[in-house]
Amino acid sequence: MSTVATTIHARPIPRADAPRETYVRRGFFPFAESHLTGLPPLFWCLQLYIFLSVSALDEHFETTIQSVLPGALNSLGPRMLIGSLTLVMAVGQMVTRRRAMPAAVGKAPTVWLVGFVIASFFSTIWAYLPGFAIDAFIGHFTSMLSFALILVIVQTRRELVLTILTFCAGIGVYMLLSWWEWRGGRYDYAQGVMRMVGAGSAYADPNSFAATIVFAVPLMTWVFVSTSKAWVRICAILFMLLTALAVLKTSSRSGLVLFCMACTWALVFLPRGRMKSAALVVAVIGAMTLPAMLSESQIERIQTIFSGQTYAKEESTHGRVEGYVVAWKMFEQRPLLGVGPGNWSPYRQAKMDGNPLMPHNLTGQLLATRGAVGSLTFLAFLFATLGMAWSTYRSRKQAGGAWNVAVSKLACAVLMTYALLFISGLGAHNLTRPNWYWCSALLLVALGCRSDEDADTHLEETPS
């Protein structure tokens, strides 16, 4: 009798409210299927759209694509064509009831983003120069299109983790293309230094390129922590090392600040143990060795971050500060809907001070080009996403279970990505960055995706 009692006490009965784990086949992650069999064509169309958006392959081979596509389609580009076709197919499946309407459609971030799209549309109609505004609106809508596609198409844990891996693969290809072009002699020369640029054209300038790769660090860190594959972790480590070197090669002061913030967060994010200790050692070695690869001019440029004269006298920095003043004057002249997307430069030249310089700040870009209506709806979308991410981070962390912990960490990565975007927005007009919309959509999907994603997946009680 005593032996039986001892055995019972050694293995306590599971609680009724204990987290239920999904036992899955071996794959990239221990908490979700990641095999590629049985996925619908619509899902693959989405992955192609995301991969092109992140890797900039269509921009890298822009000349070749222009020679193949006819004029009407060439003006839209393969990315917009694939995204639009994918959205039409998804809507068609929902109309025919082959695909259910996701519950996230009624959530606050979705509602406010739709409001922002409507506000931007009216800003385009009543823009100072509608021709400029239409082109800019189409480009911005393309970046926002990913939100709707992810929300409608990605419905299971397997599809979610594969989509995240597509993002990481895309940014990895973007990094390799950028290094390939750098080795081929493509660079920018300014202020006495050779500056590395990114692949393609949309975010090619050194500051934008540095910000682009740093914005991917939180999601890449989440994959590094969550994956069960050693080679995936090796790829994430290589990406981080190439990012550190690329940011230094760009001589981007804002990029360096963002990268230091991202690395500090990543070190805190890593779980305690050998992984964190090794990362600390690598970070210390990198901080001591990487600066030795820089020229004297690059070091002097980076050192100006800590000089007060940089913000008072340097033309590029002073122009960013001046952008706030000009933006407020534009807002006073057209407060409701702004001057319209893509109209900052022509309006400033004709109506303000004759200077075509862009605002180089998110606040000015919102107030001046979207007005009060666009600014308020965009901010509402952001704060709705931030509130959702913060509450998810806390609640899922306390709930326990492999999947809940993974979602909690994903919410933490989203919060850090938004922090980087906000900091970058102090000195860059990053309203059209698709990261604002990808992060919100991925988190919305994570909160509502199904766990019984495959017919052979079964649930078991987890011993407490």
What layout of secondary structure does this protein have?
Layout: H1 2-10, E1 20-23, H2 41-55, H3 57-60, H4 62-68, H5 71-74, H6 77-95, H7 108-125, H8 130-153, H9 157-183, E2 187-190, E3 193-196, H10 206-215, H11 217-226, H12 230-250, H13 253-269, H14 274-289, H15 296-303, H16 308-312, H17 315-333, H18 344-352, H19 362-399, H20 402-425, H21 435-448, E4 458-461
Helix pairs in contact: 2-6, 2-8, 2-9, 6-8, 7-8, 7-19, 8-21, 10-12, 10-13, 11-12, 11-20, 13-20, 17-19, 19-20, 19-21, 20-21
Count up the helices: 21
SSE arrangement, N to C = HEHHHHHHHHEEHHHHHHHHHHHHE
Q: Termini, distance in Å?
A: 24 Å
SSE-based structural type: mainly alpha
List low-pLDDT spans: 1-11, 452-464
Shape: globular
Helix content estimate: 55-70%
Query: Gyration radius, to the nearest Å?
Result: 24 Å
Largest beta sheet: strand ordering: 1-4
The main β sheet shows up as: 2 strands, antiparallel
Provide a concise account of the structure shown.
The chain has 464 residues and is mostly helical. It has 21 helices and four strands.
What attributes does this structure have?
464 residues, two-stranded antiparallel ribbon, mainly alpha, 69% helix, disordered C terminus
Give a description of the structure.
By secondary structure, the protein is mainly alpha-helical. Helices cover 69% and strands 3% of the residues. It has 21 helices and four strands. The strands form two sheets. It has a two-stranded antiparallel ribbon with strand order 1-4. Strand 2 (187-190) and strand 3 (193-196) form a beta hairpin. It is globular, with a radius of gyration of 24 Å. The model is unreliable at 1-11 and 452-464 (pLDDT under 50).
